[in-house]
């Protein structure tokens, strides 16, 4: 089973030890400010989050673009882009699972969770369009997303287990223990926005 991390003792900062063990670095190294689980969907692919059937029908009838399904080449490029973005911005990518309709990313970030999600969505959109896996007129992502701060080692462990093992058959996954080396360096380097 991927992603489960036994926590048997309580040092002065178990969260620090957990993050460092996932990152594979010494405890004296700087840790970013917050660990979050980010989830977002491809455009037009998760209308069931709305309870109202009339709202679902309205959204389908007024869609600005076709639903955007993430096929294997899309998922591989998205994972590579997320790995490279996290390296560029010095965020620790603890786990990611890119599915055909949505994706989950757990990261230790120094940016606000909202900015982290926005930057990752932007980087993935640009990579897909530059690789001709989407046209410049396509809407790739749903406007919304879900952000869940993970404030304890238990919450981090539970979220990693959910992302890696609770999504059905694995598609494109990244586990912090394997490092970003498992992601190909096919995407160009990213530059920080001012």
Automatic annotation (TrEMBL):
It comes from the Bacteria. Residues 63-150 form the Transposase IS200-like domain. It comes from Paludibaculum fermentans. One of its GO terms (biological process) is DNA transposition. This is Transposase. InterPro entries: Transposase_17, Transposase_17_sf. Pfam families: Y1_Tnp. GO terms for molecular function: DNA binding; transposase activity.
């Amino acid at each position: 089973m991927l992603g489960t991390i036994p926590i048997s003792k309580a040092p002065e900062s178990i969260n620090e030890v957990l993050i460092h063990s996932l990152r594979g670095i010494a405890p004296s190294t700087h840790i970013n400010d917050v660990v979050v689980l980010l989830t977002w969907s491809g455009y037009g692919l998760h209308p069931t989050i709305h309870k109202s059937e009339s709202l679902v029908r309205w959204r389908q009838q007024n869609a600005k673009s076709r639903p955007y399904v993430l096929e294997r080449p899309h998922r591989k490029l998205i994972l590579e882009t997320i790995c490279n973005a996290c390296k560029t911005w010095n965020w620790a990518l603890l786990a990611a699972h890119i599915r055909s309709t949505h994706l989950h990313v757990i990261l230790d970030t120094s940016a606000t969770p909202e900015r982290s999600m926005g930057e990752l969505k932007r980087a993935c959109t640009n990579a897909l369009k530059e690789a001709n896996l989407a046209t410049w007129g396509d809407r790739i992502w749903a406007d919304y997303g879900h952000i869940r701060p993970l404030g304890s080692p238990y919450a981090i462990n539970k979220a990693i287990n959910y992302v890696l093992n609770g999504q059905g058959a694995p598609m494109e996954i990244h586990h912090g223990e394997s490092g970003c080396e498992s992601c190909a360096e096919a995407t160009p380097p990213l530059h920080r926005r001012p």
